Amino acid sequence: xxxxxxxxxxxxxxxxxxxxxxxxxxxxxxxxxxxxxxxxxxxxxxxxxxxxxxxxxxxxxxxxxxxxxxxxxxxxxxxxxxxxxxxxxxxxxxxxxxxxxxxxxxxxxxxxxxxxxxxxxxxxxxxxxxxxxxxxxxxxxxxxxxxxxxxxxxxxxxxxxxxxxxxxxxxxxxxxxxxxxxxxxxxxxxxxxxxxxxxxxxxxxxxxxxxxxxxxxxxxxxxxxxxxxxxxxxxxxxxxxxxxxx
Length: 246
Prior knowledge:
about 25% strand; transferase; RsmE_PUA-like; rRNA (uridine-N3-)-methyltransferase activity; 7-stranded parallel beta sheet; Alpha/beta knot
């Protein structure tokens, strides 16, 4: 069954109004008709099983037959604090992190970040592009929410945010062995909020790791191999999915 996302205010009682680009997709690409069934998600974890009542050039009106929880979200909200990588690596990170269940993604300026987003208009354009990728990945993977891609923040701001979460973890090549990683991850199994830090191509400076530790964010290892920035986040998220999936 085809699935679409709407804003909460587009669902009024038992009626859903679909507007925007999805109207053309439903009418002219999928060629759906009155009486056809589809799933509408409110982007907050609720699915509406609907039947199309009316199709016009500018909107589609559907009747809600049943509500249910989407059932695809992890029991903990994971925030990925990603050190800004070069070129289009961030797009890959966003796509795969959303598929794996991340709650939100925050680009972070660390000391070894090479990319500089000094032009506000260019940054806004990048954020718009990144959010579109997140929406597409959420739809493809059947997410109950569309994860938000937040504006770029400093490393200090990221540390301050993670300090307020139930658990903060930061993969680091010089951290203790895998036995310690397993202990830390086990502690995440009962958390409601988790912050995950991933460094850029050059990794973290030792002073950044020290600052993280001072704020209760735990350095862990992901094994004896050095992982690329676009691989490290997916590795730790996969481990967390295994722990948190109901």
